């Protein structure tokens, strides 16, 4: 079996004391790397200021070598905050209005990819299989090819891929499309993303679809496929079963005092539809006076990418909005919305999901949305809650038992909340069983295996 080399912007180091790593993706990649032996390379998350970054820092854990590099302050600003998160992120989430094109940032993105390729090159062996993750690193394969590497290189995009009319508003769309053609396999989350990619390629005359998921463009032939990422379903369900005794979960249960709990969990990101969701909750309460003082909406929202202006502005907007709704709807003994700006550990999250009658997952656009899957996995089979899910999340292509909503339709989402809260036990169980069976079968290990099998085929 060939050695595996994973490259991603963020690298998850194993937790101290051998505790479980932070998320399903880390677990799957670590398992795949451990089995074959391998390297996980990426950005350390740190800046070296104006100094040239030190040589790669390598640490060995079992069969895996973690190789991390710092980036200069300018690199972080131009590559991560600039092009990745102010151009590719909004464009891939269909937000043309938020894309900020700067020549400096575009150049920085390609420069950092070249830098990372040069740092990776000395570690590579001839038959290594290389798996590159996400929008930060699209040009990496082209850089490696230019240096003469002929290895199998796969790419998985964790976020959506937009239709041509959106993508082609980006000045460097050509370089991005060319970058993807240098991979042997390009993986997307859903069939919609894959068809946007293939459709754009053909419509714009960049390449051809050869059938069987094969494409040709820029003189190269490669494959495209969709591989919806999963979670560690069984482990997460186990967290949720055990969480009832957790002190934080117990306190949460006591403090809601028998009210129905609605839960939302998202990074503070405009793609997650948090403001529309709060509007929908307000609309639900207004339209259903019987629920006054009978329902609590808990929104857990860790801060994210705060250096990017659009994210910083959101911190204020959402806090003000939650305060306004509480001011208008609350009473001396009822705070309708609890808004938390901190990250909560997954074992506790699992317990909170299980307490909640409704999982409210309403992004305006999302690659997959693991929270939707975690909410389902955490439910009590005897009394499962209802997932209210945006049709624009990748997860909606899989979780057919959810109540699908259009997050732009505030009244529609409000009605779905009401419907979920009054749904019969029988219907809840039937919907949940189908989703849970799917999640058990298509967990994160399966995602990893499917992608790597196709890459090596
Ligand atoms: O690394 P950050 O800038 O702090 O952002 C966190 C991650 O956000 C994105 O997550 C995506 O991947 C999930 C798993 O496949 C998917 O469920 C979700 O829909 C995506 O938004 C991003 O793609 C990651 O690279 C970031 O690390
Ligand atoms: O306070 C929090 C909020 C979120 N998460 C985790 O962060 C991930 C979010 O993934 P998702 O695909 O939903 O969205 P992303 O943030 O990657 O866009 C999920 O595994 C959540 O359990 C967490 O551990 N603590």
From TrEMBL:
InterPro entries attached to this UniProt entry: Glyco_trans_20, Trehalose_OtsA
Physiological role: Probably involved in the osmoprotection via the biosynthesis of trehalose. Catalyzes the transfer of glucose from UDP-alpha-D-glucose (UDP-Glc) to D-glucose 6-phosphate (Glc-6-P) to form trehalose-6-phosphate. Acts with retention of the anomeric configuration of the UDP-sugar donor.
Pathway recorded for this protein: Glycan biosynthesis; trehalose biosynthesis
Keywords assigned by UniProt, alphabetized: Glycosyltransferase, Transferase
Known EC number: 2.4.1.15
Reactions catalysed according to its record: D-glucose 6-phosphate + UDP-alpha-D-glucose = alpha,alpha-trehalose 6-phosphate + UDP + H(+)
Any one GO MF annotation of this record: alpha,alpha-trehalose-phosphate synthase (UDP-forming) activity
GO biological processes: trehalose biosynthetic process
Protein name in UniProt: Trehalose-6-phosphate synthase
Broad EC category: transferase
Assembly information from the UniProt record: Homotetramer.
Source species, domain of life: Bacteria
Pfam families assigned to the protein according to its UniProt record, in alphabetical order: Glyco_transf_20
Family stated for the protein in its record: Belongs to the glycosyltransferase 20 family.
């Amino acid at each position: 079996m060939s050695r595996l080399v994973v490259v991603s912007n963020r690298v998850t180091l194993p937790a101290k004391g051998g505790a479980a790593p932070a998320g399903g993706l880390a677990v799957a990649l670590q398992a795949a790397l451990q089995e074959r032996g391998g390297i996980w390379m990426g950005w350390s998350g740190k800046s070296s200021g104006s100094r040239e970054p030190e040589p790669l820092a390598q640490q060995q854990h079992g069969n895996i070598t973690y190789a991390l590099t710092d980036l200069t302050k300018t690199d972080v600003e131009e590559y991560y905050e600039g092009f990745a998160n102010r151009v590719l992120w909004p464009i891939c989430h269909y937000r043309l209005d938020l894309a900020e094109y700067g020549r400096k940032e575009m150049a920085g993105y390609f420069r950092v990819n070249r830098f990372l390729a040069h740092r990776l090159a000395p570690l590579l062996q001839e038959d290594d299989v290389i798996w590159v993750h996400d929008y930060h690193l699209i040009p990496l394969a082209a850089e490696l090819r230019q240096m003469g590497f002929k290895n199998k290189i796969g790419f998985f995009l964790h976020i959506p891929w937009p239709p041509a009319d959106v993508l082609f508003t980006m000045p460097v769309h050509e370089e991005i499309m060319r970058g993807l053609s240098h991979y042997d396999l390009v993986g997307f989350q859903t069939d919609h993303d894959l068809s946007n990619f293939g459709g754009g390629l053909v419509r714009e005359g960049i390449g051809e679809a050869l059938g069987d998921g094969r494409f040709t463009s820029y003189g190269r032939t490669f494959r495209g496929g969709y591989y919806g990422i999963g979670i560690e379903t069984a482990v997460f369900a186990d967290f949720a079963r055990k969480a009832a005794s957790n002190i934080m979960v117990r306190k949460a249960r006591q403090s809601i005092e028998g009210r129905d709990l609605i839960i939302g969990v998202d990074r503070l990101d405009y793609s997650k539809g948090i403001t529309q969701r709060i509007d929908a909750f307000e609309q639900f309460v207004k339209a259903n006076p019987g629920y006054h003082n009978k329902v609590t909406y808990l929104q857990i929202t860790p801060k994210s990418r705060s250096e990017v202006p659009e994210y910083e502005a959101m911190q204020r907007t959402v806090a003000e909005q939650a305060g306004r709704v509480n001011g208008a709807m609350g009473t001396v003994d009822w705070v309708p919305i609890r808004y938390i700006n901190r990250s909560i550990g997954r074992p506790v999250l699992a317990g909170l999901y299980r307490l909640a009658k409704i999982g409210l997952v309403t992004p305006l656009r999302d690659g997959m949305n693991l929270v939707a899957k975690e909410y389902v996995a955490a439910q009590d089979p005897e009394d499962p809650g209802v997932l209210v899910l945006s049709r624009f999340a990748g997860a909606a292509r899989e979780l057919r038992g959810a109540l699908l909503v259009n997050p732009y339709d505030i009244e529609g989402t409000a009605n779905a909340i009401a419907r979920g809260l009054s749904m019969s036990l029988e219907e809840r169980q039937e919907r949940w069983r189908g989703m849970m069976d799917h999640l058990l079968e298509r967990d994160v290990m399966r995602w990893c295996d499917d992608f790597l099998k196709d890459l090596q085929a």
